[in-house]
Amino acid sequence: MTDSTAVTAVVGNPKRLSRTLTTAEALAAAIAGPGEATASIDLAELYLDGIEPPGYDHAEARVRAARVLVVGTPVYKASYTGLLKLFLDQLPPGALAGTVAVPVTIAASAEHRFLADLQLRPVLAELGASLPVPSLTLREQELSELDERLAKWTGAHLPALRAAAGAGVPA
Where does the signal sequence lie (predicted)? Predict the structure, then answer.
């Protein structure tokens, strides 16, 4: 890998500096471990602030270089956001081959908690990503307990995630 960043978070919330971004970055840091470099891509900045042409190429390169890709989205109209779809649709077939992906979805209600995940996982798999562990799915009201939720998720899934990602993620 040419980039020293093992874990990258990409977030498709149309609100800049969103709670979804904060959550995805926190999960990326937990996956990478202490002292390991992580990167994040806030698609609201990339597309909505008019940075798209050169910024997209940099974002795509970051995504393709990641050993683990954390993909965050709020549940929006029972799916993942159009902003995230726009980014993923521009990736060429197989762009995520060799990448382990972890979807992160945040929903307003318990009934909608898994909706984006049900549609996002097949898209990531179609792009070649491996999805060996369950997604991190949270309700907005659970964000006040983010540290505890992340500890529970990583305690249950980090060993399998690291095994799937291979040597690119610290033990």
Answer: none
Question: E strand or H helix at 9, and its extent?
Answer: strand 7-11
Query: Whole-structure pTM over 0.85, yes or no?
Result: yes
**The length of the chain, given as a count of residues:** 171
Which single residue is written with the structure tokens 């709670």? 19
Protein fold of 7-159: Rossmann fold (3.40.50)
Answer whether 133's CB lies under 8 Å from 153's CB: no
User: Where do the structural domains in the chain lie, given as residue ranges?
Assistant: 7-159
Identify whether the C-beta of residue 90 lies closer than 8 Å to the C-beta of residue 60. yes
Spatial separation of the C-alpha atoms in residues 21 and 135, rounded to whole Å: 15
* Tens digit of each residue's pLDDT, the chain (171 residues): 344 578 999 999 999 889 999 999 999 999 997 778 899 999 998 877 665 556 788 899 999 999 999 999 999 889 999 999 999 999 999 999 999 999 999 999 888 888 888 999 999 999 999 999 999 999 999 999 999 999 999 999 999 999 998 844 444
CA distance 27 to 40: 11
Alpha helix segments (H runs only) across 18-114:
19-32, 43, 52-65, 82-90
Both structure tokens of 104? 């992160």
